[in-house]
Amino acid sequence: MSDCPYCGWPDDEPVQGVSRHPTAEGVLAWTRCACGSLQARVLTAGTVRIVTRGKPADGRPQDERRGAAR
Ligand SMILES: [Zn+2]
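That is the input. Now the predicted structure with zinc ion docked in place:
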């Protein structure tokens, strides 16, 4: 499983569920990460696939975060 590219939170432990929508492919679930990034994942039998991911809510440029040694 992957991690959030913004804060490193594991994608298999969503912090907050936003909504769920059953689709032909599986359940489309929107979740919000610890950093505020919104993501959509498709839950099918035994697998989870992240289909899209938004940016963190605080609006800081991600390149600055990644490069900063804090
Ligand atoms: Zn995150």
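The pocket of zinc ion is lined by residues 4, 6-7, 9, 33-35, 37 (CB under 6 Å).
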